[in-house]
Fold each of these.
Amino acid sequence: MTTLQKLPQDLHIHTTFSTNDSQVVEQQNLETVAFAAHAEIIGISDHFEHFMPHRYDEYCKAVKLHNFHIGTEVNGHQSVPLAMKYEFDYYIYHCWGKVNEDYKALNELISVGKPVIVAHPYATETDLDRIPENCLVEINNRYIWRFDWKKLITPYINKFRWVIGSDAHQPHWLNQNYARQVSREMGIRETILF
Ligand SMILES: [Zn+2]
Ligand SMILES: [Zn+2]
């Protein structure tokens, strides 16, 4: 039986803790992500505004139970003061293009000392000229193909460190891996045709 080829890392994954996100299906819970096991390094990054602060302990406990990294996706400057008060392994951050306060708050969030990944800049119209050098910037499977990525990314290739994420909201956004785990569990041998 072939062993599963895992992705090296996926730190942008949503689960049912993102309660107000209509794209998250009810089956997209931590058990589903654990079962798909699509990456060597997995981090959960539910929308900060959807579960914080009231479900912080519950979230950390649940994510840790699966040995995933505990992240959160922070939507702009308004959430930053509260996000800085709670411990996460890393942050994913929406820096909205024309919102000056978002750029300032990014620096504050970075000062916490945990990795801050600037999320899908093309989807949030982030001005990458205003993002500090060496920042972590995401190339995101959910959105990148909708944009002229060559044009958008080329000027910044050497300016930033890059992180690749799925931004999965549903099990099939984790690629073929859920189906592959089912096949493996059932002892099914895949027929390779070509
Ligand atoms: Zn996002
Ligand atoms: Zn997201």
Amino acid sequence: MIAQSYLFAGPKGIGKRLLADRFARGILCLGEDKKMVPCGSCASCIKAVSGNHPDLKIVDQSMLDGSIGIDEVRRLCAEASLKPYEAIRKVFIIDGIDRMTEEASNAFLKTLEEPNRSTTFLLTADRVMKIPRTIISRVQVLKCNALPIADCEAVISSVGGLDGAASSTAARFSCGAPGLVLGDGGKEYLALRERALSGLERRTFFDSEAGAPRDEVIQMLEIALTWYRDILVLRSLGNSSGKLINADRSEALRQFASQNTLETARHAIEYVVTAINEIQENANTKLALTMLGARIGNR
Ligand SMILES: [Zn+2]
């Protein structure tokens, strides 16, 4: 028995969208196996994989302008009220329901309240707190957790094509969310990481990245978090480089750790988290980085 709507909830980059895609294909699959595992070879699976299944619709906030607005949701709700074209069910994936505007959420709630029996919604969200309780109460929440580092490394080397030290570094950085470092096979991430860590090492980061695009700044600040986290680890556990995310930079990290206290490293992490939140909420990136540089100082 398939519920009307499911929410895949958990941290960014752990594969919620992959799960939703696979689940959708499983629902639509015409194969013999009825355990929701897509066969991969029937007409329905082939259409779904190529993005041409008439009964599978995807709304992806990252393809829009970062949020899902009322027009998109009206279109979706109108379509959800229709019968499937060829399958038994229509499946809608809404990737990033936590990025739905308030107006759009209210419109979507009406569709959830008066469900069409042949429609299934698969929702994903990084930030469950941002979803109205009225929506949460009408969906089955499937909590997705971070993967063990060894599994991340396997995903990164098989999907991303990174190998050896690069995949191991990327896996440590991903903190259980390999999607964070994938994308173009991990190369873009490695370049950003290099830029962020070199800037932090040379103490030029906050000035030199002030003009970078918002998304890049956020990603680099997330990398900066791992840097300060490593400093904190060295301060509290001593010279245990086995526990470092950025183990390839252990020498520089040790030098920084010797100039920091536990307290200053902890504050640096708080300041970076605040800056990430502010920039995500549309604060001016240049201003946020300047403020952050002033708060962290030369640590
Ligand atoms: Zn199939």
